[in-house]
TrEMBL record:
SUPFAM superfamilies assigned: P-loop containing nucleoside triphosphate hydrolases (SSF52540)
Domain ABC transporter: from-to ranges: 23-264
Family: Belongs to the ABC transporter superfamily.
Nucleotide-binding in keyword set: yes
Organism: Dictyobacter aurantiacus
Record protein name field: ABC transporter ATP-binding protein
Gene3D superfamilies reported for this sequence: P-loop containing nucleotide triphosphate hydrolases (3.40.50.300)
Keyword Transport: yes
Keyword tags: ATP-binding, Nucleotide-binding, Transport
Domain of life: Bacteria
GO molecular function per UniProt: ATP binding; ATP hydrolysis activity
Length: 331
């Protein structure tokens, strides 16, 4: 759903997405002291339970402020937010029990082992009573840590100092730590920044596993647009406002339609036929014809053309193409 007069609606089918929103944001506003305008300017959206939701936007768009509010690290100026049924303003302590967070910059103690970092986190959040040794911790804690460590393949490094870990290993450890209490929503704030391509792909493979096994809702901010291609819903912010909202397919179809390039030996006949079909196309001298339309229209045109074709080439544009066009329209 969208309430800002914008369109609403792989990780497709990886989780257990439903129509019931686990996050509801209604007219959220944040204005910093002495600021001339709102950093977040009355945004509203819903996030279905079990979905992958991507919040995108250029630097300064307001998405970092928005996610800081949703994760209870920053107070809103006005508006309401409910997460997993709890009101963010009046029940922040209950909201925190329902969320896990992976920040852009790792927040690990490099001098502790991986397990000691997890244990410290569990104690600070009141998940388990602290004990000075792993073997003295409760059986429930030890079982949960071993399960997650095995899922993310860091079980062999669980008792090694974090300072010996690669960037990808640190991210895996942060996932283990954030999932320890089985959160309903996992917030990922630029989770793959600084990771090499292999580590990035590996991290998303593990996140797919987590979603498939637990149905966790994932709320993502990223500058890597390909990471949002498989999102169930994409919300684009700029200047503190939501300027577009929908599935990746909707955004691409509406703002970055497919391109069809065709050619024939008898170009005059093909040109006449295209004009008869009401197709406006770009044509340069001694060059193929290029048509821009939605995927369904492209296939419909091809079925109607009778002139023998010597070239048929389609190009579906990406979410990044759609994103850039949306942002450029706002400039």
């Amino acid at each position: 759903m969208v309430k800002n007069n914008v369109v609403v609606p792989e990780i497709k089918n990886e989780g257990t997405a439903t129509t019931m929103p686990i996050i509801t944001v209604d007219q959220l506003v944040k204005r910093y002291k002495k600021a001339e305008q709102n950093a977040v300017d009355g945004i509203s959206f819903d996030v279905p339970s079990g979905s992958l939701f991507a919040l995108l936007g250029p630097n300064g768009a307001g998405k970092t402020t928005a996610i800081s509010i949703l994760t209870t690290t920053l107070a809103a100026t006005s508006g309401t937010v409910r997460i997993a049924g709890y009101d963010l303003a009046t029940q922040p302590h209950l909201v925190r029990r329902q969320i896990g967070i992976i920040f852009q910059r790792p927040s690990l103690d490099l001098n502790l082992t991986a397990e000691e970092n997890i244990r410290l986190h569990a104690t600070l959040y009141g998940l388990y009573p602290y004990r000075p040794f792993f073997r003295w911790m409760s059986p429930a804690y030890r079982t949960r840590v071993q399960e997650l460590a095995q899922l993310l393949e860091i079980q062999d490094s669980l008792f090694k100092p974090v300072k010996t870990f690669s960037g990808g290993m640190k991210r895996k450890l942060e996932i283990v730590r954030s999932l320890l209490h089985r959160p309903a929503v996992l917030f990922l704030d630029e989770p793959t920044t600084g990771l090499d391509p292999i580590s990035r792909r590996g991290l998303w493979d593990y996140l797919r596993q987590v979603r498939a096994e637990s149905g966790t809702t994932v709320f993502l901010t990223t500058h890597y647009l390909e990471e949002a291609e498989g999102a169930d819903q994409v919300c684009i912010m700029n200047h503190g406002r939501i300027i577009s909202n929908g599935t990746p397919e909707q955004l691409k179809a509406e703002l970055a339609p497919s391109t069809l390039t065709i050619d024939a030996e008898n170009r005059d006949q093909l040109r006449s036929e295209l004009q008869h079909l009401g197709q406006l196309c770009k044509e340069k001298e001694d060059a193929p014809f290029t048509l821009t339309s939605a995927d369904e229209q492209v296939h419909q045109v091809l079925r109607q053309i009778q002139t023998p074709l010597t070239l048929v080439k389609t190009q579906s544009l990406t979410l990044e193409d759609a994103y850039l066009r949306i942002i450029q329209q706002e400039m």
